[in-house]
Amino acid sequence: MVKARATIADIAAEVGVSVPTVSKVLNGRADVAEATRIRVEQALSRHEYRKPVSSRPTGSRASAPRLLDLVFHEGDNLWAQEIINGVERISGPERVGVVLSGLGGQHRPPQEWIDDVMARRPLGVLLVLSGLDATQRHQLHSRAIPFVVLDTQGNPPTDVPTVGSNNWNGGFVATQHLIGLGHRRIGVIMGPSDVLCSRARVDGFRSAHDDAGLPFDPALVRWGEFTPGSGFHHAREMLAGPARPTAIFAGSDDVAIGIARAAREHGLRIPEDLSVVGYDNLPITEWMSPPLTTVNQPLREMGSLAAQMLLTLAEGRTPSSTRVDLMTELVVRDSTAPPATV
């Protein structure tokens, strides 16, 4: 016999609160005691309660703005702007407003953020290089608020829709290019080691060495942040020793900017004394001096695809695919050349 789905009244009776109280929790209202909210959330989770899509507000709220929540672990950079541009390609024509949030470098939003999302009831949530824990996923799921993860921080559950790119291939082709030019001592300055895309790019770096039958020096593999400051700090140390690398693969274009400054401080010319490959292909890279060789990560396309996937889910339909990895490719410019001495 199929067990009947729990109703709001069932949840209220089990917890010993009123139906309006359960409704307030479902809608992210702040006027519920924290202990009561936790008990209601636990009951909702036990019963795998999910608010029907058809029960979204009607009447006076039917004309409320259609919103999409876009949250970055860090959003104050050109990388994030490219994704925002891609999202707006889809949201603009659909007359969907975008609410931007930044997590200050964290990869999990606080409960207060989840409460705000539930209160404003967006069409969906798009998380960039961040994710939700099991409780947070259930909270959005129970309110019929779909979510998509773009450029995952870790390996999310199989039922979480994701959009990304082939980071292993990006690391592989960047390193393969440098090896093909004759470089044998190649450094890599990557983002955080606990971020999936960082590890995948370094795996591609190592695989390119293995494919060419070449060793690599683990001391030349540095983990940091995807920022110019991190690139500058690690490159300044890496280039100070007598056995400095002749080329560096940067985990992002921002990291490459920092590497270029460190090279100038050491009196090194790019590419005559040091070749540099970036990652992302931000518009600024072709205006750098010299223009930066970089791996094209289709950030705008990723943003557009994730936004379209989210709106499809918000309409109660199933996207053609819920796990997408777009291809990466090398864009060769003037920041790489054969080493001065092979």
Index terms:
single chain; 342 residues; alpha/beta; 434 Repressor (Amino-terminal Domain); Rossmann fold; 6-stranded parallel β-sheet; 6-stranded mixed β-sheet; 11 helices; 12 strands; elongated
Can you walk me through this structure?
39% of the residues lie in helices and 16% in strands. The chain is an alpha/beta fold. Among the domains are: 1-49, 434 Repressor (Amino-terminal Domain) (Orthogonal Bundle); 167-298, Response regulator (Rossmann fold, 3-Layer(aba) Sandwich), CATH 3.40.50.2300. A six-stranded parallel β-sheet has the order 2-1-3-4-5-11, with helices on one face. Helix 1 (8-15) crosses helix 3 (34-46) and helix 4 packs across helix 11.
Terminal CA distance reads 75 Å
Question: Stretches where pLDDT falls below 50 for ≥5 residues?
Answer: 53-62
Figure out the total of helices: 11
The helicity comes to: 25-40%
User: What string gives the helices and strands in order?
Assistant: HHHEHEHEHEEHEHEHEHEEHEE
**Outline:** elongated
Tell me the structural class.
alpha/beta
CATH class of the domain at 167-298, please? Answer: Alpha Beta
Return the CATH architecture of the domain at 167-298.
3-Layer(aba) Sandwich
Fraction in beta strands: 15-25%
Rg calc: 24 Å
Largest sheet: 6 strands, parallel
Summarize model confidence as the mean pLDDT. Answer: 89
Briefly note the CATH topology name of the domain at 167-298: Rossmann fold
Number of strands: 12
CATH homolog superfamily of the domain at 167-298: Response regulator
Strand order of the largest sheet: 2-1-3-4-5-11
